[in-house]
Amino acid sequence: MDHVLLTDGREERLDLDADLRAPLSAPLLGWVRKPHGWCRDDACVPAAAARAAEDDRGVDVVAFAELTGKVAAVDRDERVIALADAAPMPPGGRAPDFTLDGRSLSEFRGRKVALVFWASWCGCRYDLPAWEERHRALEPSGLTVVSVACDRDPAQARPWQSDLTHPALVDADGIVAERYNVINVPTVVWIDEEGRIARPQDTQTATDLFRSMNGIDSEASLAALRRWVAEGDRGLTDAQIEENLRVPTREEQRARAHARLAVWLAREGRADAAARHLARAAELAPHDVAIRRGLMPLVGTDPFGDAYFALREELRARGIPVYRPLNVG
Question: Which helix (DSSP H) or strand (DSSP E) does residue 148 occupy?
Fold first, then answer.
């Protein structure tokens, strides 16, 4: 049986031929073939369009996935296909919903949310107590801090989450980071009471422990957060939000598909194959530190060691910023 890694963290087992084709008569990735096309719920891929992925031997799974709004990474030797959404961010500035550890973003509708992405492999782990202080101070005024660890091994994140009262979640499959196009941590997104993005992906810190490296003033971040919560002052116009919202390209999403494939292979003990796909992800999205540093532990590399500093130097030489604070508001 072959493995298809879906964008919601689930895995589908299929019996494919040598060229990764599935039978025309069987359901595929939740879609069912009908006379007028392939359908899932109310959506359909018209038969004329679907023919680009079909022949008399079956349906090409990779080509079909791309017809349905996905991008794919393939390891033919290992017989695994990983998918990512071609366009994970919904239009109109709506914050993508998600569920992690039994908590959903939608349950906080009616409150402001500071969505804080961090990881145990980043010095931003030391900021969690300060984010907890912000949560406790501003929670009565309508703010909820929701922290999301970008650790692929939840056990690495859990020790840093003890004694936190705010929702502290782990994105072990990288689904939420993908939906918000998080390319490094710390990254913070503000979401308003109506579930719309009020401040897009911003490098914010809650302490000044690493200010000499990142040049970010935590007090300025706190002051802006207080103004937003108390006065509804975002500091950004709708035009600025749209201009600064970092929407992923297909190449970035393809890199994430390769990263998803690498994680699965590493968890299966296939380290050499995993390393190949990490290298491919780095080629497609060299700026994505969340992939390049965050997945180092999967292949036995220290994310705090020489490899990380070599990555920083590579990015500096290529003119790629490590941190991306917004220069507005």
Answer: strand 143-149
- Residue 121 sits in which domain range? 91-244
Q: What is the CATH number of the domain that holds 151?
A: 3.40.30.10
Q: Flag whether 209 is in a domain.
A: yes
Residue type, 51: R
Report pLDDT digits (tens) over 256-314: 999 999 999 999 999 999 999 999 999 999 999 999 999 999 889 999 999 999 999 99
Q: Tell me if the bond preceding 46 is cis, omega within 30° of 0.
A: no
Q: What angle do CA 275, 123, 320 make, to 5 degrees?
A: 60
Domain count, the chain: 2
Q: Which residues contact 321 (CB under 8 A, 6 or more apart)?
A: 287, 315
What does R_g of the chain's alpha carbons equal in angstroms?
21
- Looking at residue 235, its pLDDT comes to 76
How do residues 85-97 score in pLDDT, each as one tens digit?
999 988 888 999 9
Query: CA-to-CA distance for 237 and 246, rounded, in angstroms?
Result: 16
Residues 191 and 97 in one domain: yes
Query: Is the pTM above the cut of 0.90?
Result: yes
Q: Environment class of residue 201 by beta-carbon count within 10 Å: exposed (0-12), middle (13-18) or buried (19+)?
A: buried
Residues 90, 122: contact at Cβ < 8 Å? Answer: no
Is residue 77 exposed (0-12), middle (13-18) or buried (19+ Cβ within 10 Å)? exposed
Per-residue model confidence as pLDDT tens digits over 193-236: 999 999 999 999 999 999 999 999 999 999 999 999 998 877 78
